[in-house]
Each structure stands twice: as C-alpha cells, then as structure tokens.
Write a structure and sequence with these properties.
Structural class of chain B: mainly alpha
Order of helices and strands of chain B: HHHHHHHHHHH
Shape of chain B: elongated
Shape of chain A: globular
Number of strands of chain B: 0
Oligomer: heterotrimer
GO biological process, one term (chain B): transmembrane transport
Radius of gyration of chain B: 23 Å
Helix content of chain A: 25-40%
CATH superfamily of chain B: MetI-like
Subcellular location (chain B): Cell membrane
Number of strands of chain A: 10
CATH topology of chain B: MetI-like fold
Number of domains of chain B: 1
Chains: A alpha/beta (268), B mainly alpha (283), C alpha/beta (288)
Distance between the termini of chain A: 51 Å
Structural class of chain A: alpha/beta
Transmembrane segments (chain B): 16-37, 84-110, 130-155, 195-228, 248-267
Domain ABC transmembrane type-1 (chain B): 82-271
CATH class of chain B: Mainly Alpha
Keywords (chain B): Cell membrane, Membrane, Peptide transport, Protein transport, Transmembrane, Transmembrane helix, Transport
Chain lengths: 268, 283, 288
C-alpha cells in the first residue's frame, strides 16, 4: 500500500464546448484542453505544475479534485478510480483532498465570517469539536483567533490567502492542490505564504501539488516539477535536475523568459 | 495610515428610516383601520357632500381631509384603502418573489436543461402584453382580491426569474462555490447556503420594487373597475371617482394620489436602504 | 534635460493622504521605473500625470511639469490638449483596453484624426506602418479584426503601436506585462525597449516586478504608502539598495538562480520602520 502513489493519472483527456464557434444548429465543437496527461504523484511529495496560459494546468488541477469530469483516461486517488464518480460517491473522499484557490477574494464567500468559512468543510464532513478545530487551523496559519469574527473584505490579501489555507488544512487532508495561490499577492506576502506552506507540508505530512506560472516560486517550494504545454506534459523531473539541465525546448524557453532581478540588461 | 476605502462608505440613514417610517404608519393604519378611522368609510351623507379639507373655508373639523361627492370621509377611506393596498403588496410581492427567485436561482446555478426549460418559458411568458394578460385573467377568474393577487404573481414572476438567474450565474462562477463543492456540499445546498445569501440584496431590492408595483397594479385595476366590489374602498377606485369631480372637489383625487405616490416611493427606497444597511461588504 | 518633473505632489482621498510629497523626474529618452507593492500609489502617479485620477482623489499641492508647462496650473481643456499631443498610455490589461465591439483599425487611427487633426488617409498609413513596426504580420488584416479575434500578446502590441502613433514625448506604461505569460512578456518588453529607443521617448514604467525593472529601466523610484523611499540609478540599486525597505523588497523578489537568497519575507521590523517614517512625515505635515 505504501508504494501506491497518492495520485495516479493515466492518459487523461478533457475538452470543453467552444461556444464561440457553435453553429446555428447542432452542438458546439469541442476544444481539447488536456491531451492525454499521465502523471504519478507519490505520497509526501511536493509537485510543481507549471505552464503558460492555455497549458491546461488549472484544468488538470480542477479535474484532480473532481470539480470537473474528464472525458476519458483515469484519475486514481490512493488506488481508487475517481474519474467518473458521482457527487455522492465522492463526498466521503472530499475530506482527503482539498484545494486552495488563486483569488481569495472570489473563493471566500463575502457574506460569511472567517470562522464560518473554515468551519464549513468540517461540518459537512461530520467532524466533532468544530470550534476547536477552527482555532487550531487559525493557529496553524498564523492568524489570531479573533479573526473568526471578521469578514473577508476586512482582511489584507495575504491574510485572506491564509484563511483559504486554513480552510483547506482544517479537515486534515492527505493532499492539497494549490492553484496559483501566490500570483495575486505582493512579493512580501508571497514569500510569507510560501514559507507557511513549506512549514505546513513538513508539519502535517501533506502531499502538495502547486500550480504556478512562476518557475522561481516552484524552484523554491517543489521537489518535482511538471511542465505542461498545450495540454501535454513536456517534462516531469526532479526540480533540481530540471533547473540544472532542462530537457524540453519549452522548459528552456520558459526559464529564459524569466526577468531576473540583476544587472544583466542584454537579456531583452 | 487610514484606509481610503473606509471613507467612501455609503450612507443609508435617512431614506431607510423615512421610508420604513411611512410604511409602518401605513401598516398600523391598515391593521387598526376600524379603530382609528374617524368614520365609517362607506357611510354616505348627501348633505355633507364635497366638504373641503380642514384648512379651507367651509370645512368641517370632523372630516379633516374632506368628503367625496357622496359625503364619505376621505381620510377614513384612505385608511381603509391601505388594507387592500398593503395586503396586495405583501401577499402578491412575496409570492412573486418566492416563485421567480427560486426559478431564477435554479436556472442560473444549475444551468443545463433546467435553465433551458425555465428560460424559454420566461421568454414566451414575457411576450404576452401584461395589461391585456391581467384583464384577461381577471375576466376568467372573476373580480376580487385573490384574482388581483394571482394576476400580479402570474405576470410578474418573470421579472425576478430573469434578474436572479443572471445574478446566480455570475455568483456560480466564483471560486467560493467551487470551494464548497470541494468540501463536499450538495448542489442544492450550495445554491441555498452559498449563493442565496449573495443574491439576497438583489432579491430584497426587487421584492420591495415589486410591492410598489403591486400597489400600482391594484390601483390601476381598481381604476378601471376590475378590482374588488365597490363596498370596499381602495385608493384606485377613489382616484377614479375623484377624477370625475376634479373641478368641484380636487381633494378627493389628490389625497389618495399622494398616499399612493408616497407608498410606492417608500417601497423602492426601503429596498435600496435595506441593501446598503445590511450588506457586510459595504458596511 | 528634465522632460517630466513632478514636484512635491500630495494627494488625498477624503482626509487620507495617498501621495505624500512625491518628487521625481524623467529626462528625455530615459526609462524610469516606478516600483511598489499594491497601495503604494504608483499607478496614482501615472494617472495624475495623464489627468485621469478618479474623482474621489484630490490633489492638494505640488506641480507636474511636462516640457516646461505646469499641467496642474492649466485649465482642464488646455491640459487635455497638451497631454493628448505629448503623452500616451500603455495600459495594464490588453483584454479590456480595446473596445470589444469596434474593429482594431479605427481604435488606432481615431486618436490621430480626432485629437491631432490628421486626415483619415494619413492616419491609416501611419497605423499600418506602426503595426509593422511592432512586428504584427498582415497588418491590413489585423486592422479589420475585432479584438477578441487576437491573442493577449497581439493586443498588447496593438496598444503599444497605438501609444506610439502620435509620436508622444512621454509614455506611461502601467504594468503593461502583468497580465501576460512570461514568454510573451519577454517579447513585449523587448518591443517596448526597441520602440522607446527608436523614438527617443521618455518612459515612466509602473511595475511591481523588480526583475522587469532591471531589464528595461535606467533609473527607478521606490514607493511605499505614497511616499518616495528611494530614487536611484538601476546600476546602483541592484549593486545594493540604500533604503532598508528596498533591500527587503529585492530580497523578496523570486530569483530561481539563487533560491536561498530570494523570496525572503520582508521583515516586520522593516515594515514597522517604514510606517514610522510615514507617520513622522504625516505628523510633520499635520495629516494625522
């Protein structure tokens, strides 16, 4: 059992209807976003998923936590095939894989207090001592407990993202998907949130998939890196190896395009 | 450092309290009409017909807003008329809101075939001319308070359905909905527990507007004599009668008209005021 | 020679200061970076120069001098004319900056025709020239296209072409690459620099990314809470910033070649220090 990967994704395909090119009659043509993705994430790993816009990285993430249903292929979570499971069958599994979203302003219900937001998944999953667990989650992410009574709009961007993290870890999941969670933050809070995530992974023994467009951030946080380009995996290797000797041409292009804060002005 | 956003807070204050005040006054008058109305609203007195309001020459202090051409007390008739007006507003408004908002929420959040069915239905429904539709309905159902209420609900639910559908759709695209789904919340429960509170301000505004509209519709139907029996005073029928004697007794027309105007205005202002007052994002 | 001079600019929203005594200069042909985190007031400065501040913002004092003319002392009509003829904006979001219901061509030429009084034909010729200059293939086809038919990078090229169309002396670029992929960002930065060098335009480049600053600017101004903390040459800055906050900002900026020395959180003490500096400033100027 221990060598079963937490996620085993095989030849995953997913498409959306293209409403812009829908004919007057009949169904819209479909655009394929994921074109046969295969990926294994071992338990305890921290995997970065990187790619440009249109690479399918967010779609892959949303398919992994089954916010969307793939067309074909397989997603196995701890050996169990969840590719086409219905909501009722997924519900007991939901406690074990959680998600942190890109935009905390949109992912925190503006009409609920921080306490109610974090308590939501706990109540749904039938946890006891909900209030104590909310406090514990706030402690974990370094927010004072009095924040329970606040509304999301009363917090700063970094604090909001901490609430999103607290909600995700509250149910003690095995796996967390983080979708571009620092890209909307200022660099100072970016570094803090990354540090926090690093510490939580260590303390809670989480498996983390970290979706980002920023290779610098991925290098800092992730043990392995998957590079996606137009719905396909172009490279999947150890992060160190990927930065030392990128294999795919697209990876090299990505690395080369990062404007490093130094005095090399030949770059442009 | 002060936060600049805190300074552009909206002030709900005055209009909320003024409109709520007028409507409360009216509601009390409606409930206790038999106790507080100075006269029987139906009692005729042909010798005391067309008495002017209290400040004019020849007025009778017992009839502060004057009497109509049959000598009935205008103030008492307005007070009793409030029963019909507010009753219609409350019942028709609430029913319209419940039906329309629920269908709008379902269409906007679930999309797919429920949306197809509801939206097509709304489109077809809205293609009927409303006034004709109402008159037709009353002709079929017969006159009476319940017919008016049914007519308003049947015609106006589409207003809610359309607006709430669009609102639910944009809220449904927010990540807090996806987050509730990841947490394992059922779809119908997401709609009620996550989306509904976020469309509630819009629902409140629409509801109060609808109550105002219901008052107007009832008045119009009374005006064209399609409302309820003539022995129940309504503002619409008072306006209709007042119109006939506008040159001899303007007050018979003007007072119910002012009451109607203030009531409809108060409903719409109440909605906006409530929205500003109870919105945690704006507060 | 100083081309744009901002002197002691202070602005408020209600009683709250959002720009505190800001001074900076852009010399002809220079690219100056305007750097800061959200809420630092960097976009406000660009908006103040272009006269597009939101109505809630009140400029309390200071001067904005563009080629010797004090913009704030002018009548609004004259100011609009001066700005229209001499300055232009490259906006942040290429997806919303073009009107989705109009073809691209007129959106470039209208400014030339309406504000500068060119003939439609001249404007058309100029637009085609510019689209070619920003490396857009088949400019004739693109002129007839609607914005949604073009990619984000393509639209940003069009906005750049449009900004340079009237040969402005000053361009304000407000986070022009923030919404783009890194690979596209590189092309766009290269293009902006190429165009700027060819036309000798002064450029005020608003950004939160010190990496971008290091690649495109010659000088930079670091802001926090609407106050200038550091004003320096890019070479000096990356050799070692003088203000502790700038140093912390640089250490927080991701740098994959040096993972251990980057993405360091800005220390609380540094933030407290800057806040104290700002509070002291406010006390001195009586805005408490």
């Amino acid at each position: 059992m221990s060598d079963t990967p937490i996620y085993d994704i095989e030849n995953l395909r997913l498409s959306f209807p293209d409403m812009a090119h829908k004919p007057l009659l009949g169904p819209a043509p479909r655009v394929e976003i994921l074109k046969g993705i295969s990926l294994r994430i071992p338990r305890g790993d921290v995997v970065g998923i990187v790619g440009g816009s249109g690479s399918g990285k967010s779609t892959l993430g949303r398919a992994m936590v089954r916010l969307i249903e793939p067309d074909s292929g397989a997603i196995r979570f701890e050996g169990q095939d969840i590719t086409h499971l219905g909501e009722d069958a997924l519900r007991p599994l939901r406690r074990r894989f959680q998600m942190i979203f890109q935009d905390p302003m949109s992912s925190l219900n503006p009409r609920r207090t921080v306490g109610a937001i974090i308590a939501g998944p706990l109540k749904l999953q039938g946890f006891d001592r909900v209030s104590g667990r909310v406090d514990q989650a706030l402690d974990h992410v370094g927010l004072p407990r009095v924040f329970r009574k606040r509304y999301p709009h009363e917090l700063s961007g970094g604090q909001r993202q901490r609430v999103g993290i607290a909600r995700a870890i509250a149910t003690e999941p095995d796996f967390i998907l983080a979708d571009e969670i620092v890209s909307g933050l200022d660099v100072s809070s970016q570094a803090q949130v990354l540090n926090l995530l690093e510490q939580l992974v260590r303390e809670l023994g989480l498996t983390l998939a970290f979706i980002s467009h920023d290779l610098s951030v991925i290098r800092r946080l992730c043990r392995h890196t998957v590079v996606l380009h137009r719905g396909e995996v172009v490279e999947y290797s150890e992060t160190q190896a990927l930065f030392d000797a990128p294999q795919a041409a697209y990876t090299r292009e990505l690395l080369d395009a990062i404007p490093l804060p130094d005095l090399d002005q030949v770059w442009v | 450092m002060a936060d600049a956003r805190g300074l552009v807070k909206r002030r709900a204050g005055a209009r909320l309290w003024l409109s709520a005040g007028w409507l409360t006054l009216l509601a009390l008058a409606a409930v206790f009409a038999p106790l507080i109305a100075p006269h029987d609203p139906l009692a005729q007195d042909l010798f005391g017909a067309r008495l002017p309001p209290f400040w004019e020459h020849g007025a009778d202090a017992a009839f502060p807003l004057g009497t109509d051409s049959l000598g009935r007390d205008v103030l008492s008739r307005i007070i009793h008329g409030a029963r019909v007006a507010l009753g219609v507003a409350l019942i028709a408004g609430t029913l319209t809101c419940l039906i329309g908002a629920l269908l709008g929420l379902i269409a906007g959040y679930f999309r797919g075939w429920p949306d197809m069915v509801i939206s097509r239905f709304v489109d077809i429904w809205m293609a009927f001319p409303p006034v004709l539709f109402a008159i037709l309905l009353i002709a079929v159902l017969g006159t009476g308070l319940s017919s008016i209420i049914i007519a308003i609900v049947v015609i106006d639910w589409t207003r809610f359905a359309r607006v709430i559908r669009a609102e639910a759709m944009s809220q449904g695209a927010m990540d807090y909905v996806a987050s509730a789904q990841v947490a394992g919340r059922k779809r119908f429960s997401i709609m009620l527990a996550e989306i509904l509170p976020n469309v509630l301000p819009t629902i409140v505004v629409l509801l109060t507007l609808e109550m105002g509209i219901a008052v107007i519709v009832e008045a119009i139907l009374s005006f064209v004599n399609l409302s309820i029996s003539t022995d129940q005073p309504t503002w619409g029928s008072m306006i209709a009668e007042g119109r006939l004697s506008i040159h001899q007794a303007w007050w018979v027309l003007v007072f119910p008209l002012i009451t109607l105007f203030l009531t409809v205005l108060s409903f719409s202002q109440l909605g906006e005021g409530l929205k500003d007052h109870f919105d945690p994002v704006l507060r | 020679m100083s081309f744009l001079t901002i002197e002691n600019l202070s602005a408020f929203v209600g009683p709250a200061p959002i720009l505190r005594d800001v001074s900076l200069t852009v010399t002809a042909g220079e690219v100056r970076g305007l750097v800061g985190e959200s809420g630092a007031g960097k976009s406000m400065i660009g908006k103040a120069v272009l006269g597009t501040l939101p109505p809630a913002v009140r400029v309390a004092s200071g001067r904005i001098v563009l080629e010797g003319e004090d913009l704030l002392a002018m009548r609004p009509r004259d100011r609009r004319r001066v700005i229209g003829a001499r300055a232009a904006l490259i906006p942040q979001d290429p997806l919303t900056a073009l009107n989705p219901s109009r073809r691209v061509g007129p959106q470039i030429t209208n400014r030339l025709v309406d504000i500068l009084g060119w003939t439609r034909h001249d404007a058309q010729v100029r637009a085609l020239e510019l689209l070619d200059e920003v490396h857009i293939p088949e400019p004739e086809r693109v002129m007839r296209a609607y914005p949604h038919e073009l990619s984000g990078g393509m639209r940003q090229r069009i906005l750049i072409a449009s900004a340079f169309a009237a040969e402005p002396r000053l361009i304000i670029a407000d986070e022009p690459t923030t919404a783009l992929d890194v690979t596209v960002q590189k092309q766009i930065l290269r293009l902006i620099r190429e165009m700027q060098a060819r036309h000798g335009t002064a450029l005020l480049f608003v950004t939160h990314d010190l990496g971008v600053v290091s690649k495109i600017c010659q000088s930079l101004t670091v802001l926090y809470g609407g106050k200038v903390l550091e004003d320096t040459r890019v070479g000096d800055f990356f050799a070692g910033p003088t203000h502790p906050y700038s140093a912390a900002l640089l250490a927080a900026t991701p740098k994959y070649t040096d993972p251990d020395a980057s993405l360091t959180p800005v220390p609380e003490a540094v933030i407290d220090g800057v806040r104290a500096e700002i509070e002291a400033f406010d006390r001195m100027h009586g805005h408490v």
